[in-house]
Amino acid sequence: MTWELGVGQALAETLRLNAELTWLKLGGNRLGAGGVRELAEALRFNTNLASLDLAFNDLGDGGGQGLAEALRLNTTLTALHLWARLERIKSQHFVRLRR
Fold first, then answer.
1. pLDDT in tens, 63-84
2. Which superfamily does 5-98 belong to?
3. In the chain, what are the domain boundaries?
4. Beta bridge partners of 81
5. Three-class DSSP labels, the chain
6. What tens digit of pLDDT does each residue of 14-52 get?
């Protein structure tokens, strides 16, 4: 079971509104691809978060693609933890994440 959009949308809204948050640990929270994609959308414009832990979430291809696109614009995030579940991200998105 994944939380998908409901929790992902709430977390994304928090990132959009909170100017103090610099570290967020969401490892093992079953966000799912949809939830990670919502979070990634907020990361595009967030200028405070420096560290994000998404380890042991099922990112899927959609979440991987969303993160890759967000990180092209986000220059603040310096640590992104994605341990495990990377096998479900298509290779082209993983390569974008590594750049």
1. 888 898 998 899 999 999 887 6
2. Ribonuclease Inhibitor (3.80.10.10)
3. 5-98
4. 53
5. CCCCHHHHHHHHHHHHHCCCCCEEECCCCCCHHHHHHHHHHHHCCCCCCCEEECCCCCCHHHHHHHHHHHHHHCCCCCEEECCCCHHHCCHHHHHHHHC
6. 888 888 999 999 998 888 888 889 999 999 989 999 999
